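Project outcomes to date are best conveyed with an example. Our students and postdoctoral researchers have been running inverse folding experiments weekly, and each run begins with a structure described purely in tokens. The record below, which covers 292 residues, was selected by the lab manager from last quarter's runs and is presented without edits.
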């Protein structure tokens, strides 16, 4: 798995019914690990604000912050394709703003494509960004930026019960086709569900992957790396169903480190420190004083 992944390769994977593997990463080290694991796509999600920085909702993240994070991930990504989320704002402000944001991501952070949430509402922006030479990864369905439209709170998005209802099948297929016609090279159908998701994937020639609410009915899956490895303080008291439990490992390690420091012991991996030598008592101090 040393060949650089290309958009053509992703299209071929869809045609050959081979699943596309995507992860969301927010730092250089995680990107390097994911790249070595052989994933096809690394996406820098605007969810970094909520999941890593403690924001209350994804709308708080700024363009400058997304650029800092994306540059870090770019340094760790060699083989996989790299995508970055538009923060809330540039797409909603119109095609010109969207093109400016896409160009910044391409020039300053070296992305291979940009992900636009709620892109089906702005096909003219998808066309403009594509025309500017930056490939578009279009997100639709019940997403962080469209959840309120469906009456879903952001914190409830991960619930399987919030998948797109089957009666919206025709509307979702139409959205997917509209995005493909506008030039999107990859689609992210969030909370798709097995019925609507399968219909959408079959209706378009571009690959359709999914994060929340995705499944084997799509052409691939997206998963936050931190979620896959169980790296969240919130999981310490409620062990998650993940491939690892890094939060617990980190807590145990830092607890052991604290205990070593408090006990004046050598810390693991630290520069070797010689054991303290007991202070000697001068002979004059212990001898009885002479009389007279």
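After processing, the design step wrote out the following sequence:
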């Amino acid at each position: 798995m040393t060949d650089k992944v290309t958009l053509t390769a992703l299209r071929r994977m869809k045609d050959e019914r081979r699943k596309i593997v995507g992860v969301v990463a927010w730092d250089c080290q995680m990107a390097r690990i994911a790249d070595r694991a052989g994933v096809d796509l690394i996406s820098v999600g605007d969810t970094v604000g909520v999941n890593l920085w403690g924001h209350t909702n994804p709308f708080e993240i700024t363009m400058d912050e997304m650029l800092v994070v994306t540059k870090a991930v770019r340094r760790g990504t060699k083989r996989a394709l790299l995508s970055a989320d538009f923060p809330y704002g540039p797409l909603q402000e119109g095609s010109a703003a969207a093109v400016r944001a896409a160009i910044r991501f391409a020039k300053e952070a070296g992305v291979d494509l940009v992900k636009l949430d709620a892109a089906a509402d702005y096909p003219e922006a998808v066309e403009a960004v594509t025309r500017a030479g930056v490939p578009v990864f279009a997100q639709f369905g019940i997403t962080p930026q469209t959840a309120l439209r469906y009456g879903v709170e952001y914190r409830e998005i991960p619930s399987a019960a919030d998948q797109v209802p089957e009666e919206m099948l025709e509307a979702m297929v139409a959205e997917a086709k509209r995005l493909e016609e506008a030039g999107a090279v990859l689609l992210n159908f969030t909370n798709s569900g097995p019925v609507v998701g399968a219909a959408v994937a079959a209706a378009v020639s571009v690959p359709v992957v999914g994060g929340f609410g995705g499944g084997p009915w799509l052409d691939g899956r997206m998963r936050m790396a931190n979620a896959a490895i169980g790296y969240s303080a919130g999981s310490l008291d409620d062990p998650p169903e993940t491939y690892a439990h890094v939060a617990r490992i980190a807590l145990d390690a830092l607890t052991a480190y604290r205990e070593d420091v408090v006990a004046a012991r050598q810390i693991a991996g630290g520069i070797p420190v010689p054991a303290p030598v007991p202070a000697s008592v001068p002979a004059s101090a212990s001898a009885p004083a002479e009389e007279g």
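The longest strand covers residues 136-141. The chain has eleven helices and eight strands. The training component of this project remains on track.
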